[in-house]
Amino acid sequence: MDFEMDYFERLESETHKLYEIANEARSKGFDVELETEIPLAKDLAERVEGLVGPKGIAKRIKELEKDMSREEVAFEIAAEIASQESNETGTKLEAQRQAFADQGLRTALAILTEGVVAAPLEGISGVKIKSNADGTKYVAVYFAGPIRSAGGTAAALSVLLGDKIRVATGLDRFKPTDDEIERYVEEVELYESEVTNLQYSPTPEEVRFAARSIPVEVSGEPTDQIEVSHRDLPRVETNNIRGGALLAMVEGVIQKSKKILKIAHTLELDSWEFLAEYAKGIGSSKEEENSSESDFEESSQEIDDNIIDKEELFEHSKYAHDIIGGRPVLGYPSEKGGFRLRYGRSRNTGLATMGVHPATMELLEFLAVGTQLKIERPGKGNCVVPVDSIEGPTVKLKSGEVRRLDSIADAREVKNKVAEILFLGDMLVAFGEFLRNNQLMLGACWCEEWWIEAIRNSDKYKSFDLEEKEEFNLNSLETKKLTVEEAFKITEEFNVPLHPEYTYYYKDISIKDLVNLSEWLNTKRDYLENGYNNREDLELDLSYQKRILEVIGLCHRLVDGKVIIDKDHAYSLLKTIGEDYSKYLADDYYNMSVVDIINENIDFEIKDKAPCYIGTRVGRPEKSKERLMRPAPHVLFPIGNNGGNRRLISEAAKKKKIKVEFARRECINEECRLSSFQSICPHCGSPTVIGKAGQKDINLAHIFSKASNNIGVRKVDEVKGVIGLISEDKLPEPLEKGILRAKNGVFTFKEGTIRHDSTDLPLTHFIPSEIGVTVPKLLKMGYDKDCYGQDIVSEDQIIELKVQDIVVSDNCGEYLVGVANFVDDLLERYYGMERFYNVKDKYDLIGHLIAGLAPHTSAGVLGRIVGFTKALGCYAHPYFHSAKRRNCDSDEDSVLLLLDALINFSKSYLPSTRGGSMDAPLVLSTRIDPEEIDDESHNLDIFERFPLEFFERSQESLKPSDMLDLVDNVEMHLGTDRQYHDLMFSHHTSSIHAGPKVCLYKRLGSMKEKVEAQIHLAELIRAVDQRRVVEGVLSSHFLPDIMGNSRAFSKQKVRCPKCGTKYRRMPLTGKCKCGGDLILSVSKGSVVKYLEISQNLVNRYPVSHYLEQRLEIQEFGINSLFESDKSKQSSLDVFFGK
Amino acid sequence: MFAEILIKFARKGIILSPEAYNIIKNSENPINLSSDIILKLKSGNYPKDIVPVDLKTLETIEGISLNIKSANKIMKQAPQDKQKTIEKKQTPQEKTEIKKPKTIEKKQTPQEDIKVKNPAYAIEHVVKIEDTAVSEDAISKYKRNLTESKVNFDKFKVLKDTSNKSYTSGEIGNLIEYFQNRYKKLSGILSKRPELRTWQKINEITDNQTDLNLIVMITEIRTTKNGHYLIEVEDETGSIPILVSKDNDELIRATKNLMKDEVIGIIAQKRQGNELAICQNIIDPGVPRMPRKEVDFATVFTSDIHIGSVTFLEEAFVKFTRWLNGDFGNEQQREMANNVKYMIVGGDIVDGIGVYPNQDKELAIKDITAQYDEAARLLGDIRSDIKIIITPGNHDASRVAEPQPAVPEKYAKSLYQLNNAEFLSNPSIVSLDGLEVLIYHGRGIDDMVMGSNDFSHERNDLVMKEFLNKRHLAPLYGERTPLASELEDHLVIDRVPDVLHTGHVHINTYKNYKGIHCINSGTFQTQTEFQKIYNIVPTPAEVPIIDVGGNYKQLKFID
Asked: Which chain positions lie within coiled-coil regions (chain A) (predicted)?
């Protein structure tokens, strides 16, 4: 424990150092406030106080936390705040009661969402106390769109909190009118048809029932421009759709009814019994409940029954439906040759990230480190990282040779010679992924680690004494390459199934294939006596049975019409495959698995090498890039349209005076009253207050040159500003900051900070040499032992990552060097202080602090740079990502250099619009407590090896929770010392960034090339049906795009490029109000962009006639829109000589 | 010729058995039958490579009529059908107009809403066609291909057809011209109204002027915090806000029916120096009362047949065509059929392909050409002396943006081969021997229903009335109805018709508004999945007819 305390205290003391520097800079009065605006929060209670307040609540939360659960605390706090005493009377009292209710709900919701998510600020637009028709008062909770970020349960709990407040303050229940109830019904339908689908589509009866029964009013601000027909209801303020309210009611209360009812019981809220009805079914409600689980059970049953209806399986596999141009399908659902499921976790997987062999990544080119895959199961998506201790792909070359690729070098060598990808290789999936998604277990594949456990549990091994065991060295056997004779010897001696290397994918062939294969082999039955003993390879005459070898994944060559199998595999094959299976062709055996048939005829055992395959398709590409607004400004300083398209300050400064809207600060000193941008009056030194925003004339040239002189930087032409300020106060940033940002090549984001975004990737262990950190630096940072408890002396040891240390991408590192230099310049030239970072290259950043921030949250998480990765992603401890409430299935979060954020962030720059405070560092949480972060990370597997029983029981389609006794995960160590260390992994990987760094999707320029590559891959991969891919791209991407855009073209708005004004419909004047010419907002280009490529596909591939005609009709429509019949006629006239 | 047929089959990889060959050879029109067979085989669920065809196969190919013996197969089923009449006495003079002010009809509660779905007045016109089959020998002799039509169609005229007259090239300038043309056409109509004789342009308004007299296009309609309406209007010289006070009930009622982008006249008062003008009167372009036209023939109006959909009511449609041929119904009804000279199909004759996601799951025929082939087969059974006018709808193979050009021959070749069919655009205007019919599929109805509380799909007759008052078929831009930026706005009703015929919503309605027959011709499709979700109850297989003398009736071909 001391060790960790040391670590956290070290981080905290360094953080405090940065706060001191930032506060000193701020104290000069050049900024909006005199202190840094990011409060520190050590734990959940402090975060809540920092995020939503009220002041002092952290103490009360901590008191309650001692003997209450998190939920109980939240509800207690809500009641306490809402029912506190007030000195006011009359209308003031009412206003205050309402304010208390509002505060209570927000604070409680913040507690429920770990004080990280923006929902308590942005997802609740207010709480009101309103009147029923009978004069009684009730509570109304107003939701806004960002309630989405809280998740369904928390959204529903917000409604429950409203009820708690209602009870605590002695108010009556909400009594809706029939119109109000029907309004909800209509709104839900309208939302689904006009806006987007809800996760759960309730029946009208279900909505009606909820609307009638929920004891508080679930209302909200309008989120979409669509109007309902139940208009002008006196108690509903808007006629537009209330998206937030619908999310809270449908995806919250209705969808999570079971869970909410349980919580209502424990909290003793008695108006929620009605929720029990949802489980029974309301009205004619169809049982479409939470599809994933039941869908899954169905499809897994099909597999077990060995009767796989491919079409049905396809229907159930969402991932395979929406095929997008340029994002290849890598395997159809459970199709043979797709990814083989392998259980385990490597040091860079878990939390929805899964391992793939780097040779597979190299071969496919569409998989880079961090590329997202949509997957058949478990879950919906993941992120791919390289793990080289699992099996690579098996390919058939144009020469007829079948090879397994074990390294990137192998893959590079054969890449251009591949005729077919027979197997994609393994996908390493942690047990925790099944647990998290609550999906039934799938059978483990027959692999080395299982074989090892089989030996370990054999009677013979158990009878070994210590010395014998050491001599036998079981663990080294796992990676050792065995000869076939050694393999058979172990099988015989230890009575274990045959080694996986010499076991092939027999289950994938039919009984008929088996008969045929055996007949073919019968031509060389004498090989074992003759050829093998002479160390010769097996030669077979080329015959159609070669395909069977390909399908079982047995490597061979093809030379001069002979199929050549190397002697070890030939031996194994001939030993395994008997001479006559013809009796199994009888009907009685049709349902028997080939593996069982083979086993019936041999005196040893073989195992099923691949009980299941996982279908996948490529999703979002990996990313690591600086955050840029469009266009990207260096400074939040308004220059209107005077800077041209590029918003150049220097351009705008050429005009004598420009008129822009902004606010200044005014000196409070009656005698001075000077206007400035500073929080301390530059003239008299008195404090200043924000003035009113308005249109003002400024002499930009003067301000600009004054700023340049002020910091002693000459002539920076490329400083970019913004058109206007979108914040409430409309206070501009000092121009000096912009000049220095431009000088260092960095850009600002909406609230004054500089961001770099990367795909989230998990990491629990690192090797110093791979991330570019040296031993002395590591020691300095407090690392002293490797993961096996040895002292750190070399850069090749495996070291467990501390929970707040992160490995950023190379380009993030380089960008942060610019940020560090900017901060140093700012300190030195603007604030007149010492430089702090003094970095020359990115390696100097190691050990420096950053803040990690997820877009849907408002709390930064403190982190420390420990090294760099070549991957386009940010490797960090799973806890770190979970602290941001993220998993790693291709989410991307930003990294801020801490001192930059502390000095330059200001709340007053935040947009005044809804959602404006999301993605802003409103508090900084300094310490990760695994109990206070998203519980997804609690499912992380942390053990080195699975017991034999795990592999065996995995074949039984059990619930993952029934297997918890066989595994070890974070949850089992929460609250103990071990929650921070000794989190091991089961599969090693030699590099966390092997394989491609940029997926092919990003490297190819045009959609045409991307689609070509996608279809080429479909042709190569055995588990993919090329025709289906072509049809999929057409029917789910290109055709809807073409149709949507031609429809949009004929309904489009017009826009003024000069001033940016949009018009719903072309004005009759034909001009913009500003006098400028208007342009189309949907161009011909966007309508026809996929037309040619679609025609191309239709011409080259045998797609269904249906699709072909659909495309033709679209083409007719498009031509009719863009080609005048006059020109067609005149060209015909010319043709006919008229 | 027979070698030709064999080669034709061989090229398509079809092998004929001798029996099959004989059947084809002995049919009335071997070449046509061969084409039919080939088409069915190639588009249907038959193997893609080599197809052996014997007698059995021929019999199982759906939709092929082996003319030799099965031509009146359908007739044979008929006599078993129940016979029942619910014919009502005709009220010669329509109850002209149901003059219930809309405001009273306004939905108060959802329950009332449902009642409106089956407007009681409509029942009066409905005539159930008797399931009386005609004896074999009485079956009409004038089927297509049997007798050349001797009917004189000299007085049939196409007054407006925009097919092959799309002059837009999709540029910004076209969009400007399009709306300016709408304004020009409608201001031309409005400027003839006496109230607007002194109308002026917005930029001519002087500071001290108090009375405004404007012809404007509506830009935006908003309600203010105090419950007033604020209408922003424009002409080609500028824009101005107009306030409609909530205290003026009559004006508020009128305002609620206003659509963005329609052109109206406004009389308003402005206080000196105040930018805001207060509305005094809103003037629609409106229509004059049309004189009743007596005609000596009957016209049937259909639309939304949706051939190719699994929900197409083929049986009812065949009853309808048989009735037209005089093979069905009681004597009086067959007499009525005998008078039919024109049949209009106002869009969605087929279900189309790819109109909405996963449509293929609801299609019986998944090939657009085959859908039109099937349409040709069904319409081809109608006696050739009825002229059939076919316009496209949103399900047809045309462009989505209105005006839609006629369905191209490329897809509807077989339909084009019917010598009595005419293909026109949507919208289009025809003169049926002097009776002018404006045919419009009806997407604009969606906009109106969405845009105002006072309209519903069920009462689309009220929407048609509003089309006439506004003199535009789809005034609202940018919502449901895609509009092509043609140089002329063809959706303006610049010529007042005798009949306004719409479809699209699948609900029959009828209204006589100022002497104009407003007809929605319903559908031949049962409730679709989409309609189920939106609780739209269609009125299938009811065919409107304007009878000799100009009376409206509605014929029902389903129980």
From this structure: none
